[in-house]
Amino acid sequence: MTYCVGLMLKQGLVFMSDTRTNSGVDNISTFRKMFTWDVPGDRSITLMTAGNLATTQSVVSLLEERSKEPGERQPGILEEESMFQVATMVGNLLKEVIATHAEAGQRADSTFNATMILGGQIGDGEPRLFLIYPEGNFIEASFDTPFFQIGETKYGRPILVRAYDPEMSFEDAIKLLSLSFDSTIKANLSVSLPLDVHVYETGSLRNGRLFRIQDNDTYFLALSSGWGIALKDAFGQLPEFSFPEP
Amino acid sequence: MTYCVGLMLKQGLVFMSDTRTNSGVDNISTFRKMFTWDVPGDRSITLMTAGNLATTQSVVSLLEERSKEPGERQPGILEEESMFQVATMVGNLLKEVIATHAEAGQRADSTFNATMILGGQIGDGEPRLFLIYPEGNFIEASFDTPFFQIGETKYGRPILVRAYDPEMSFEDAIKLLSLSFDSTIKANLSVSLPLDVHVYETGSLRNGRLFRIQDNDTYFLALSSGWGIALKDAFGQLPEFSFPEP
């Protein structure tokens, strides 16, 4: 499993992804699921992946190939002129990779499927955030629906819905995402630290802060234990229930 | 969809279930998913159901039939001598009903499946809580795993995991379950008020408080809006994130 969230703020975009992959509970590994590209002054692009690892790695390798050898397969992720065109390209690539593997072998339903979150900004365009489906089509976030989740999305959703604020600072956004990940990690063994984080500031047109929250990160641990206490306090402050008259 | 929780406390058992059933988003109805039986001084039994409505109603009708005409099909739910035997009987009945319908018609995977939470106390036995699978087998709760959820379980789980305490009062348990249901209702259209509640007090050997939290319940509404504010406060009290040194 996997958990990734892309969050749209007035200030920019924040991405967080876990790094655990598993094929059964006795076969777990750590793989990066967040990939970034930039051409300073022109664009910053972030891609996060969930689903079949062979599929997602293949898509990313093809994108890397395209980005490294721009002459070979025009236009690559560094040449497309808008985020919409990048999303279209990534969607097509994803669909092709799934189709290729599905032809060759196993027919099991959705085995080779993958879903992706793509976000970034190119040139004069606004920052944009997309959710790309295995069929190659995609939807775009707006301030009505300001975040996308992929993978194990449910445990971490209530806190996002309750505490998200489009005006929040990047620091608060990372705190919020950390809580959402903590709830998910507590409930699903196949989601785990370390977590990759990328913070893109609107208009900067270059990758922003990119870092990894490690297993033993003191802030994350403090947040996790503090949240348990804070939730109990919050619970205590709510009005008491009293039984209805029989 | 459905959401039901059975919770084990030192003081007794608390059950809560929603009442929405749906077959597509344009075909929703209200059906009771919680059923109780008691013989005062001897036993109290509660059953909650999730899954195919035809299956669950059929199981409950058969149980009612058995309970109403004890001579016909011995022993019924009011005659079994332990909660374990009741769980075995309900599990077998569930398996039979699924098998009967599966033979007759549609072959779609898991279409007729259902899952149930069964709890109660009989005679000198301890209060017991079971989760019954469509295959007819079941698992039992203990204070290591003091609650069972069926239906749309994920959204409402983090708050249960964080705030549950085996020593908590019935009033606090209902408050906690209400929050868990509120998180679920906010995220999944196919879970909805009214909610049915049953509180069974250990050793009472009769049904306890049985009531319905209606759509316009002022306590539930106050809790729901208060929880949003309390969560934001709790969020604000947690330590601030600061970016690592580059």
From TrEMBL, chains A, B:
GO terms for cellular component: proteasome core complex. Gene3D superfamilies: Glutamine Phosphoribosylpyrophosphate, subunit 1, domain 1. One of its GO terms (biological process) is proteolysis involved in protein catabolic process. It comes from the Bacteria. It holds the Pfam family Proteasome. This is Peptidase. The lineage of its organism: Bacteria, Pseudomonadati, Pseudomonadota, Alphaproteobacteria, Rhodobacterales.
